[in-house]
Amino acid sequence: MQQELIEDALYDALLAAALFARNPTRFGGIKIAASAGPVRDRYLDFLKHCLGPEFLSRKLPLNIADDRLFGGLDLSATLQAGRPIFNRGLLAEVNGGLLIVPMAERLSRGLAARIAAVMDRRRVCVQREGFATESAADFGIVLLDERVADDEQVPAELVDRITFQLDLEGFSYRSLEDAISLFELGLRDDGMPVQAGLSELDDGIIHALCTTAMALGVDSLRALSAAKRVSEQSALWFSRLTVTPEDAAIAARLVLAPRATRCPVEPEETSSEPQPPADCAPSDNDRTQTEQDPVNDKSDPALDEPTSLENLNDLDEVVLGAAKAAIPAGLLSQLLSGQTLRGRGSGSGTSGVQQKGGLRGRPLGVRSGLPSGRARLSVIDTLRAAAPWQKLRAGSTRYPLSRVKITADDFRIQRFKARTETTTIFAVDASGSSALHRLAEAKGAVELLLADCYVRRDQVAVIAFRGKRAEVILPATRSLVRAKRSLSGLPGGGGTPLALAIDACLQLAHSIARRGETPLIVMLTDGKANVGRDGEPGRERAQSDAVRAAQQVAMCGFTAMVIDTSPQPSEAAQKIATEMHARYLPLPYAGAAEVSRFVKAMA
Amino acid sequence: MAVAFPFSAIVGQEEMKLAMLVSTVDPGVGGVLVFGDRGTGKSTAVRALAAILPKMTAVVGCPYACAPDDTRSRCEFCSQLKKQQARLKTHLIPVPVIDLPLGVTEDRVVGALDLERALSAGVKAFEPGLLARANRGFLYIDEVNLLEDHIVDLLIDVAASGENVVEREGLSVQHPARFVLVGSGNPEEGELRPQLLDRFGLSVDVKTPQDLGSRIEVVKRRDAFERDPQAFIEQWKKEDNKIRRKIAAARERLESTSVPDAVLERAAELCMKLGTDGLRGELTLMRAARAYAAIQGTKEVMSTHLKAVATMALRHRLRRNPLDDTGSGVRVERAITELFSA
């Protein structure tokens, strides 16, 4: 068998493609996380090879307009015929085939929801531009995920509806090439799998899949159905007449493991393992390390103990074990370090709050109206609106000379969605309790951020607090020179007026928001407040004031982040972060480079 | 989608099913808003509901499917017809459940000039839109929080007035558009405009079932349905028919179901305690409780009925307190226990 000769993770990736290719529309789709390059291309070639040479596939451009996605008025045909002519959309055209979505992490929520709705119904219903039609749109979707940072995520509504998710990062071209030739060799040895009537799924198999899903914290019921389908397809693939535990194990590895939101490990075990606390983006280093060593996970007795489940029978354990071994390495380290996997809000990889109605940015569809200073005329859509009427208006004397007869009703204006600028507010604790060198690091981080501000069109402001006051030492700016000058003279020492600092942040954030920009508050502090709002010393009073101020930030819904600068992660800073609904990052030895990296990921 | 999953075969999700039944029995309750996780069967339930509704009587040929005995909001077509014939011809039709797909354009929602006829015959004719088709039925919006703003504006107005007024492309048309708004969505995708929120009578939160038994059952039933939809529907037909009869009987009883003053007082107290804005909460609560009593087959609304529907009727009407993380559903329940134990 070829199976023993291929590395587990690679074998699973190839098997996923092979199973998916047997029935792409039934499986819904496959998500491939990899940067563009030879490895991904080779894998896609393999997938295409499995599907057969003639298999229909279409690419989805991210900026597709609704009329091309669903179908709409065909402008030139309509003008020619003098009656509305319908043009099928991409989703209807790809019926029975494969829809390929490059850069799926940049897909907007709206587009994702539209595609998801069509996937659910397996039909497109068009209700636009005078048309009311329905056509079949049953397709498999290939989501090419190229994300690098954590805040870019393929929209969850699509991921939920597909079956397979894999990560090709970490495979070398060479190993993939070898694995594919071995895999294909195996195909020839086994002969092509026969499509036979499969006997009904055993209750034990369903039980095992459901138990495993629960143990891994896989909530969605769609994932369960997908796992069931994969186990059946797997049985067919291996020319079996019934679904065996082996097939269930394959389903658990391919479908359930990548969706794990918790690790079935005793909690004590987790805490004893020192994990890098702020490992947001697992480096390639530790990814490959765990990858090379999947057996280690399997044999680790700690990992074999499920947490909340009793009465596990043998089958359940086999399937659960298989799934655990297949949890992707990067995901595993995240789960073990207790990080939540839910992205920050909607996270389709956009920065800044999106604002509608501007004159710049991504087009957001058209509506009828007259062009003015705030709205730009959309020529094509105006023509389109006028098109069907040309014959009718030809008889009228109202348009004596013009070739194209247009009335005020036809005017269409383009709306845009512009990304607003982000202004990062740094609140730097310059008190005695935060050691002086921290201040230097904060300064460094600000400078690093500013260095690439030009590209990002973002701004930075700095608030310093010490003694009895918090002051804006650097108003929002994009100027590096100015920032350097005002930061260089910043003294340190004195008490920690945390509440005052938060109040100052809030005030500044409000004024930034009023300008139409998005504020991001970053506090560098150890959280040990000892000066109250009124400037009087007193630890208890200062703490409660700070908590109240933090709640205010949460109430206003500003995005915030607390970087704990104390040598040991402190409860005080953590509490402030929680109250602020802020992200908490203990960075005891953070250098300027790290701080700026995290802030960039957040903005 | 060719066939819908049988309503009675949906595992669990009792609150969602109850809310849908209540709004079916008394459309006056207002729509249902279903918020919840992905893959919990929100849209499955709505489509299943469409299949289970008892048929309704409508005037033959009326584009708005008017009821023959409705004199109050008779449409243009029926008024014309009535002048010609004393008795309007009627037929039984399925209750419309109309999908409002994302990406829908304004002209298809409200209706617009019929291009085909305008061009070929030069006739200025109105082509009814989705609001017309949804009259007396349900208008379903999946991913309601992703609906574009200008479409939301249209819906807010029509849902409140029950009448669609079209003034565009030289047309001036009014027609009845009374429908039950059903929306579903995922709270993570954004908030709903408060005005739109207010148009929904009931609101339910759905979660994926967390016990192994029901999860297994869900997978098994889904599997059976996918294997052979017809056989599966046949298997559940009896149960579905039972619910259909229940709806019909409850509708009959609804008028005669009385609301004692004591219960009215309780409802008012509850709303006061929770500080819900305006009278709409109280009214919805009353109507929902009455519909539930009619479903249960009792002649009088009792406090148990009130309790059963209070959470779904009031949950989305509470003032938001950003400092209080407790879900509003929990707050309603807490108020109920306090009130009814006292």
- CATH-defined fold name of the largest domain in chain A: Rossmann fold
Q: What is the CATH superfamily of the largest domain in chain A?
A: P-loop containing nucleotide triphosphate hydrolases
CATH superfamily of the largest domain in chain B: P-loop containing nucleotide triphosphate hydrolases
In quaternary terms, these chains amount to heterodimer
Number of strands of chain B: 11
CATH class of the largest domain in chain A: Alpha Beta
Low confidence ranges of chain A: 189-193, 266-310, 338-358
* Amino-to-carboxy terminus distance of chain A: 50 Å
Q: Topology as H/E string of chain B?
A: HEHEHEEHEHEHEHEEEHEHHHHHH
Categorize the overall geometry of chain B: globular
The total strand number of chain A stands at 19
What's the number of domains of chain B? Answer: 2
Number of spatially distinct domains of chain A: 4
Secondary-structure arrangement, i.e. CATH architecture of the largest domain in chain A: 3-Layer(aba) Sandwich
Query: Which radius of gyration of chain A do the C-alpha atoms yield?
Result: 29 Å
What's the arrangement of strands in the largest beta sheet of chain A?
Answer: 16-15-14-17-18-19
Q: Largest chain interface and its two residue counts?
A: A-B, 59 and 54 residues
Describe this structure in words.
The complex is a heterodimer of chains A (603) and B (342). Chain A folds into four domains: 3-192, P-loop containing nucleotide triphosphate hydrolases (Rossmann fold); 214-336, no CATH class; 354-419, no CATH class; 422-602, von Willebrand factor, type A domain (Rossmann fold, 3-Layer(aba) Sandwich), CATH 3.40.50. Chain A is built from 26 helices and 19 strands. Chain A is flat. Mean pLDDT of chain A is 74; it is low at 189-193, 266-310 and 338-358. With 342 residues, chain B is an alpha/beta fold. Chain B has two domains: 7-55 and 94-206, 3-Layer(aba) Sandwich (Rossmann fold); 261-341, Magnesium chelatase subunit I, C-Terminal domain (Helicase, Ruva Protein, domain 3), CATH 1.10.8. In chain B, the strands form four sheets. A five-stranded parallel sheet of chain B has the order 4-7-10-1-11. In chain B, strand 8 (163-168) and strand 9 form a beta hairpin. In chain B, helix 1 packs across helix 12. The termini of chain B are far apart.
